[in-house]
Amino acid sequence: MKSVWISLGAFVAASVGTGCLAASVQFDVRDEAGKPLSDAVVFLESPEAAKAVKPLQGAEMAQQGKEFVPRVLVVTKGTELAFPNRDKVRHHVYSFSPAKKFELKLYAGTPANPVLFDQPGVVLLGCNIHDSMVGWVLVVNTPYHGLSQAGRLTLDNVPAGNYRLRSWHPGLPVGAAALDQALVVPASGPVTASVRMTGLAP
Q1: Is residue 128 part of a domain?
Q2: Which of 26, 60, 96, 191 is deepest in the core (most CB within 10 A)?
Q3: How many CB atoms are located within 10 Å of the residue 196 CB?
Q4: Domain boundary among 120, 140, 160
Q5: What is the 3-state secondary structure (H, E, C) of 116-148?
Q6: Is the distance from CB of 164 to CB of 120 less than 8 angstroms?
């Protein structure tokens, strides 16, 4: 297996006036060649964050143009996810991932019951009818999460504290856990963190 590592640099800027109890955390996410990386899920975990997490409302992973839309989705633990089929052909959505095993047999439209994602982890989706269809759902146990676009991501209003900075990308080997690094968020900010991911598939 190719090596996977994360390099973190943090700079805390001094604030003027009364300090606040939360900060913005700005991430710069790149691959091993230094190119900006999209579709990387970045999230901050802590015992306090786990207590603050709430299920998302109205979350969905659609099938459109014989693709999962969006291709990568991050949801919080306890979220019920709908799988509307917007194609004219039927789909058969399934996952064998340990974090969530389920099957939505051949269907059109939207199944009556959404799927409950109640365990943190990576869920790889497929379609029994269309082998080229692949999607990912990352279930996190924290409200502080986001998806990078062109290597950039900002998380606002993150309470001060000690966190585990976790990052994951669909280019990682199947079954690979999210990368892990310590991060301290001070009572004032902003904080900047640089994430480097290697071993990604082309």
Answers
A1: yes
A2: 191
A3: 19
A4: 140
A5: EECCCEEEEEEECCCCCCEEEEEEECCCCEEEC
A6: no
* Domain total in the chain: 2
Please state, in angstroms and rounded to a whole number, the distance separating the CA atoms of residues 102 and 81.
12
pLDDT tens by residue, 75-91: 999 999 999 999 999 99
pLDDT at 62: 97
In the chain, the DSSP E strands lie at 10-12, 22-31, 41-45, 62-64, 67-69, 72-76, 79-81, 91-97, 100-107, 115-117, 121-127, 134-140, 145-147, 152-159, 161-168, 179-185, 191-197
Over range 123-130, report the average pLDDT: 96
Q: Are residues 20 and 119 in the same domain?
A: no
- Please write the tens of the pLDDT for every residue from 139-170: 999 999 999 999 999 999 999 999 999 999 99
Tokens of 54: 């709430």
